[in-house]
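Dear colleague,

As promised, here are the two records you asked about, laid out in our usual form so they can be pasted straight into your sheet.

NAME FIELD: protein one
SEQUENCE, THEN STRUCTURE:
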Amino acid sequence: MGSQGLADVDGVVWMRKRVELTAAQAAGAAELHLAKVDDCDEVWINGQRIGGQCGWELSRRYAVPAGTLRAGANWIAVRVTDTGGGGGIY
Protein backbone atom coordinates (compact mmCIF):
# COMPACT_ATOMS: atom_id res chain seq x y z
CA MET A 1 0.00 0.00 0.00
CA GLY A 2 3.04 2.16 -0.45
CA SER A 3 1.54 4.24 -3.26
CA GLN A 4 -1.34 5.11 -0.90
CA GLY A 5 1.11 6.24 1.81
CA LEU A 6 0.43 3.11 3.86
CA ALA A 7 3.62 1.10 3.24
CA ASP A 8 4.12 0.18 6.91
CA VAL A 9 0.50 -0.65 7.75
CA ASP A 10 -0.44 -4.20 8.71
CA GLY A 11 -4.13 -4.72 9.36
CA VAL A 12 -7.30 -3.51 7.63
CA VAL A 13 -7.73 -0.65 5.17
CA TRP A 14 -10.92 0.30 3.35
CA MET A 15 -10.75 1.69 -0.19
CA ARG A 16 -13.74 3.22 -1.96
CA LYS A 17 -14.36 4.37 -5.50
CA ARG A 18 -17.40 6.07 -7.03
CA VAL A 19 -18.25 5.03 -10.59
CA GLU A 20 -20.86 6.79 -12.72
CA LEU A 21 -22.87 4.53 -15.06
CA THR A 22 -25.53 5.13 -17.68
CA ALA A 23 -28.78 3.16 -17.51
CA ALA A 24 -27.52 0.95 -20.36
CA GLN A 25 -24.24 0.25 -18.54
CA ALA A 26 -26.07 -0.59 -15.29
CA ALA A 27 -28.56 -2.97 -16.91
CA GLY A 28 -28.10 -6.68 -16.25
CA ALA A 29 -25.30 -8.60 -14.60
CA ALA A 30 -21.63 -7.59 -14.80
CA GLU A 31 -18.21 -8.72 -13.69
CA LEU A 32 -15.67 -6.83 -11.56
CA HIS A 33 -11.96 -7.51 -12.09
CA LEU A 34 -9.43 -6.38 -9.49
CA ALA A 35 -5.67 -6.65 -9.57
CA LYS A 36 -3.92 -8.88 -7.04
CA VAL A 37 -4.58 -8.11 -3.37
CA ASP A 38 -2.09 -8.83 -0.58
CA ASP A 39 -3.39 -10.61 1.49
CA CYS A 40 -7.23 -10.73 1.64
CA ASP A 41 -10.11 -8.73 0.21
CA GLU A 42 -13.86 -8.36 0.60
CA VAL A 43 -15.76 -6.40 -2.04
CA TRP A 44 -19.06 -4.55 -1.84
CA ILE A 45 -20.94 -2.67 -4.55
CA ASN A 46 -23.67 -0.29 -3.40
CA GLY A 47 -23.72 -1.97 0.00
CA GLN A 48 -24.09 -5.52 -1.36
CA ARG A 49 -21.23 -7.96 -0.73
CA ILE A 50 -20.18 -9.55 -4.01
CA GLY A 51 -17.16 -11.59 -2.94
CA GLY A 52 -13.84 -11.95 -1.23
CA GLN A 53 -10.85 -14.23 -0.99
CA CYS A 54 -7.34 -14.57 0.40
CA GLY A 55 -4.13 -15.18 -1.49
CA TRP A 56 -1.66 -12.51 -2.53
CA GLU A 57 -0.95 -14.26 -5.85
CA LEU A 58 -4.57 -14.42 -7.05
CA SER A 59 -6.23 -11.99 -9.44
CA ARG A 60 -9.76 -11.16 -8.37
CA ARG A 61 -12.83 -11.65 -10.57
CA TYR A 62 -16.30 -11.27 -9.09
CA ALA A 63 -19.76 -11.71 -10.58
CA VAL A 64 -21.99 -8.68 -10.04
CA PRO A 65 -25.62 -9.86 -9.96
CA ALA A 66 -28.28 -8.09 -12.00
CA GLY A 67 -29.91 -5.36 -9.93
CA THR A 68 -26.72 -4.45 -8.06
CA LEU A 69 -25.68 -1.62 -10.37
CA ARG A 70 -27.79 1.48 -10.99
CA ALA A 71 -27.78 4.45 -13.32
CA GLY A 72 -25.78 7.30 -11.79
CA ALA A 73 -23.41 6.93 -8.85
CA ASN A 74 -22.26 3.45 -7.81
CA TRP A 75 -19.88 2.81 -4.92
CA ILE A 76 -17.28 0.05 -4.89
CA ALA A 77 -15.80 -0.63 -1.44
CA VAL A 78 -12.87 -3.00 -0.92
CA ARG A 79 -11.75 -4.13 2.53
CA VAL A 80 -8.08 -5.09 2.28
CA THR A 81 -6.50 -7.09 5.11
CA ASP A 82 -2.71 -7.30 5.20
CA THR A 83 -1.32 -9.83 7.66
CA GLY A 84 2.32 -8.74 7.43
CA GLY A 85 4.93 -7.28 5.14
CA GLY A 86 3.91 -5.45 1.98
CA GLY A 87 0.24 -5.34 1.19
CA GLY A 88 -2.54 -3.65 -0.69
CA ILE A 89 -3.96 -3.78 -4.20
CA TYR A 90 -1.34 -4.04 -6.92
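NAME FIELD: protein two
SEQUENCE, THEN STRUCTURE:
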Amino acid sequence: MKMCVILGTRPEVIKMSPVVRACEGSGADYFMIYTGQHYSYNMDRVFFEQPGLPDARYNLDVGSGRHGEQSRMVAGIT
Protein backbone atom coordinates (compact mmCIF):
# COMPACT_ATOMS: atom_id res chain seq x y z
CA MET A 1 0.00 0.00 0.00
CA LYS A 2 1.29 3.45 -0.91
CA MET A 3 0.66 6.31 1.51
CA CYS A 4 0.46 10.02 0.84
CA VAL A 5 1.27 12.63 3.47
CA ILE A 6 -0.15 16.07 2.65
CA LEU A 7 1.40 19.07 4.39
CA GLY A 8 0.12 22.60 4.17
CA THR A 9 0.68 24.75 7.21
CA ARG A 10 3.49 25.05 9.71
CA PRO A 11 1.51 23.23 12.44
CA GLU A 12 0.81 20.37 10.03
CA VAL A 13 4.49 20.01 9.18
CA ILE A 14 5.37 19.93 12.88
CA LYS A 15 2.60 17.47 13.79
CA MET A 16 3.31 15.15 10.87
CA SER A 17 7.11 15.11 11.31
CA PRO A 18 7.03 11.97 13.50
CA VAL A 19 4.84 10.22 10.92
CA VAL A 20 7.23 11.11 8.10
CA ARG A 21 10.24 9.97 10.14
CA ALA A 22 8.46 6.69 10.96
CA CYS A 23 7.77 6.15 7.25
CA GLU A 24 11.42 6.85 6.45
CA GLY A 25 12.65 4.55 9.21
CA SER A 26 10.39 1.65 8.31
CA GLY A 27 10.92 1.85 4.57
CA ALA A 28 7.21 2.46 3.99
CA ASP A 29 6.09 3.22 0.46
CA TYR A 30 4.97 6.83 0.83
CA PHE A 31 5.32 10.26 -0.69
CA MET A 32 4.60 13.81 0.42
CA ILE A 33 2.63 16.62 -1.15
CA TYR A 34 3.27 20.14 0.11
CA THR A 35 0.85 22.95 -0.68
CA GLY A 36 3.61 25.56 -0.75
CA GLN A 37 1.39 28.25 0.66
CA HIS A 38 4.22 30.26 2.23
CA TYR A 39 6.45 32.47 0.15
CA SER A 40 9.43 33.10 2.42
CA TYR A 41 12.22 30.86 3.68
CA ASN A 42 11.28 31.51 7.31
CA MET A 43 7.73 30.32 6.68
CA ASP A 44 8.56 27.43 4.36
CA ARG A 45 11.88 25.59 3.94
CA VAL A 46 12.96 26.01 7.52
CA PHE A 47 10.11 23.73 8.66
CA PHE A 48 11.46 20.90 6.52
CA GLU A 49 15.13 21.51 7.25
CA GLN A 50 15.00 21.88 11.05
CA PRO A 51 13.38 18.49 11.73
CA GLY A 52 15.39 16.89 8.90
CA LEU A 53 12.43 16.03 6.66
CA PRO A 54 12.97 15.08 3.03
CA ASP A 55 11.64 17.30 0.27
CA ALA A 56 8.07 16.67 -0.77
CA ARG A 57 7.67 14.84 -4.07
CA TYR A 58 5.13 17.42 -5.18
CA ASN A 59 4.97 21.10 -4.29
CA LEU A 60 1.69 22.67 -5.36
CA ASP A 61 3.23 26.15 -4.92
CA VAL A 62 -0.15 27.63 -4.05
CA GLY A 63 1.49 30.74 -2.59
CA SER A 64 -0.17 33.29 -0.38
CA GLY A 65 -2.69 34.68 -2.84
CA ARG A 66 -6.25 35.57 -2.13
CA HIS A 67 -8.65 32.87 -1.02
CA GLY A 68 -10.51 32.79 -4.35
CA GLU A 69 -7.28 32.37 -6.31
CA GLN A 70 -6.14 29.54 -4.06
CA SER A 71 -9.52 27.80 -4.33
CA ARG A 72 -9.36 27.93 -8.14
CA MET A 73 -5.83 26.49 -8.09
CA VAL A 74 -6.84 23.61 -5.85
CA ALA A 75 -10.00 22.95 -7.88
CA GLY A 76 -7.83 22.72 -10.98
CA ILE A 77 -5.85 19.77 -9.62
CA THR A 78 -8.78 17.58 -8.64
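A couple of things worth noting about protein two: Strands lie at 3-7, 30-34, 58-59. DSSP finds three helices and three strands in the chain.

Best,
R.
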